Amino acid sequence: xxxxxxxxxxxxxxxxxxxxxxxxxxxxxxxxxxxxxxxxxxxxxxxxxxxxxxxxxxxxxxxxxxxxxxxxxxxxxxxxxxxxxxxxxxxxxxxxxxxxxxxxxxxxxxxxxxxxxxxxxxxxxxxxxxxxxxxxxxxxxxxxxxxxxxxxxxxxxxxxxxxxxxxxxxxxxxxxxxxxxxxxxxxxxxxxxxxxxxxxxxxxxxxxxxxxxxxxxxxxxxxxxxxxxxxxxxxxxxxxxxxxxxxxxxxxxxxxxxxxxxxxxxxxxxxxxxxxxxxxxxxxxxxxxxxxxxxxxxxxxxxxxxxxxxxxxxxxxxxxxxxxxxxxxxxxxxxxxxxxxxxxxxxxxxxxxxxxxxxxxxxxxxxxx
Length: 369
Fold this sequence. Notes:
By secondary structure, the protein is of the alpha/beta class. It has 13 helices and 15 strands. The model has no long low-confidence stretch (mean pLDDT about 95).
């Protein structure tokens, strides 16, 4: 039985490749905690998570001071036991983003280690439902872009084989959202999916009103229309529209997802491994969603989520937003508008440690033995 001997922690700051704006914010930074776990056999696994610009230092202190030391001497293959022990050890700070993000970095490292030692790609180890999944793009649909740019990007994405494009909504007046989306629909035709995302930027009355105005555009979904903790509001909205309502990127517990699904507050589940606490709880949410006949369309982290989406039967879409290119040597493989599951052992992410060394924030380098 191999036991954990060393934990290496670092954080890099990745700037977005394009300007990214939505209804409530503009992204200028992606703080990316990296955790590498080495066991007594000399095997290594690396995991990661992310913030959108704030909280990274708190995540790193939680990892270095509280979570990391608890791993030393543990059987690295007892992933379920470790996850629950770490969650209980931080019960005073759960359920919350900082703790979930820290747990995610550790949990993905443990799954990477297990998969590498078993010489299996993650998607097979975690379920092996399929080896590819349809892909949609978000990179050309940001809220600040003019209509002409939205149309051009969607037409190009369709020509490249993407199955859909996401367009941010939440402009000052609903008529602007209608005009922008109508122009995209006219350009791409009826057989191409248009996803929308309000990023929690609407009040309930306005969300109901806009969903009604957008109904005839046959949208794939409206994502995060309301504040993520407004479950009753989502119930009322979901009952008022035939357009699917998608939630998940801002939920941090499997129990939050359970309540959304039980109450009929959503139609599409967008669980994010980097925010729910890692692969272990991600799989629980995905399997629960299957019981409710709901598809999984995870938020962001395409390099990781391609494997998880392919692991489960109800994985429907992978979201194309490249963000790790500057610190990895691997790339998402795309064929006929579908993301292909990696065939290499582990997460399928090959880290460029030389590039990482040049981007590390010095004060957060830490080693635990």
